[in-house]
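Task: complex structure prediction.
Instruction: return structure tokens for all chains below.
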Amino acid sequence: MVYSPAAEKYNGEIGEVVLGTDGVKVGGQKVLPFQGFEGEAGNHPIIAIEVLDVEPEGWPEALVEAIGQDVLGDPVAWAKKAQDEWGADAVCLSLVGTDPNAADRSPDEAAETAKAVSDAISMPLIVYGSGNVEKDAEVFQRVGEVLQGANAVIGPVKEDNYKTIAAAAMGFGHVVAGETPIDVNMAKQLNILMTNLGLPADKILVDPSTGALGYGLDYTFSVMERDRLSALLQGDKVLQMPIINNMAKEAWKSKEAKVSAEEEPAWGDAAERGILWEVLTGVALLMGGADVLIIRHPKAADVLHTTIGLLAG
Amino acid sequence: MALTGLDIYKKLPKTNCGDCGLPTCLAFGMKLAAGQAELSACPHVSEEAAAELTEASAPPIRLVTIGAGDSALKVGGELVMYRHEKTYYNPCGIGLVIEDAMADGEVDERIAQTKAASFERIGQTLKADVVAVRSASGDGAKFAALVGKVNDALGLPMVLMAENADVMKAGLEACKGANPLMHGVTGDNCDAMTALAKEHSCPVCVSCADGIVAAADITAKVEAAGIKDIVIEPAWDSPANTLKELIQGRRAALREKFRALGFPFIAFPCKQTDDTYVETALAGAYIVKYAGIVILGSLEAAKALPLVVLRQNVYTDPQQPMQVEEGIYPINSPDADSPVLVTTNFSLTYFTVSGEIEASRVPTWLIVMDAEGLSVLTAWAAGKFVPDRIAKFVNRSGIADKVGHRKLVIPGYVAQISGELDEELPDWEITVGVREAGDIPPYLKQMTA
Ligand code: SF4
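Output:
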């Protein structure tokens, strides 16, 4: 019996989205993830390092050490380090400090931080709000404005605030990350709403909501697979946007990524365990079709870059 | 092409005698078509029909058993390309390689590592469930000694790795009855290995540097020689090629019903990098995409835990939410004054809530109610997490014996039931807690301040 491989029958492709002003592109696949052996594999997925607008609390010791205590309270220095020393492809500024239930920083303060980070780096900037629907809408009107010309990614845009944030994105020339709760149809719906508003498809990334390894990763993974099958095999145009996974917070919230070796001696070295929890969350998302992974640990960035290179061939 | 249950039924005796364990021939035909029964279970089928049906009714990917007894590993038997189409059935084996050229200390260390790679999670034991023993020395006696030692120490299913048939023979003799997977049937040693496999009735692994196109020729030969339990190693020259062949192999077996590739696959990230982080990452990719077994060169707990949890995620039935057991979960050593929180037994809900309570360091009683594995909102909407049921649960849970107070915190998402629950539980004072698990730590701290 002679075997000759049969290719998948494709009926669509993922659009390309330009991030930042330095020619970084994501998407462009005409085949399922990592299946460049049967067609155009498009751009490699990219790794964005997350930096916070306020000093994080309760992060595991090994993570803090790897990032450097000195930059944790300084998003500009943190972002520069991600660019210059860790080989990140992009920076994601998480405006967790704007959360009304946390530091409740004002839109102006957020805008100031975003502008400073943007000016300090040449790579694409992603800005994620706190997830508070009303506050994010206010924040992104200001942040969008001060970042005009940076072609940043702003999000998460949800069904309840897409009008304001997508309008800000259109007005000031940014890309949006549209977030829906692990559901193919809701992702389509939000994309339709945003394109109806006039936002071009090449200004949209799909954020499917991300569960970490052991905490809902299976749901996210399968929704992403279904997204990619719809986009590439069924040719569903409203899902042909690259996917962004805001996974850092989820991965590092996991008990397995956090607890010390003293607390759980049977779980092995805490530093390595944390890195691998983030890496394997990322690997599964990559296989599911991620184009942008937002992560925290410099070593995880390194391992994921190498792995992407090896698997893409 | 695959036959339908009806196609098969037409060729069965149609007597509905029930000897196959099913009430009717049609029911048996359906099972056969779904790959859930073997034709041999019907003693009455004609020889002619049997010949026609065997080819068409065999499952598209053979289920292969490696090892023996309680620890035996079953791999293959998969029916879908994507887990959301149904589910993946047989979790892949994960294991470490041990070589006969290693120093004794290193061998002992690896045996210990394998034993330690075992964790409890959501009521399941997740562990390294296979071990590879490789002849690096080419010396049969050395190999045999190591095989015997590993078999005695671990009792796990083994992959014996030796390309020389004499060395393999020595290994097989050292673990009689252990039913190891014989790795390394190539174009060159095919006849000798097949003979050994028949003699010891062991599964074999076909392994070709040229990948699955060449492997398909060999599996056909091995099968023709009467060996049915086959595993295939895809190309290993690069991870990209391994992944490509894992995907192509699964597709060929399921979509094209290409029999010569209708077997589980094994991948060896240990051959592909010296960087243990990258090795773990590659193993992860192969677990997600179709490997039946992955063999690593390093499996310390910090690597094993994320890998076995990834496997659990991938092989969870997407249609069946994972559940934790109903009951009282004490977190941070609570006492009679500690707060009582109630939630549902959807594993993700439990994990998130218990994780946040733990992080708060506030001693707390979490009582988890059987809501058929649904999350709080879904369970409420489905009528499973409603006042009368919650009341019955609180009463049967025994939490009243653990605490001196009678204050119960319910999830913020079901605030609307608090009034009715008050009536159902007259002794208890119902408090509406937070909606998002992430808000639990400040809530608990404030509550107990
Ligand atoms: S044993 Fe054979 S003949 Fe009897 S019911 Fe089953 S399929 Fe039909």
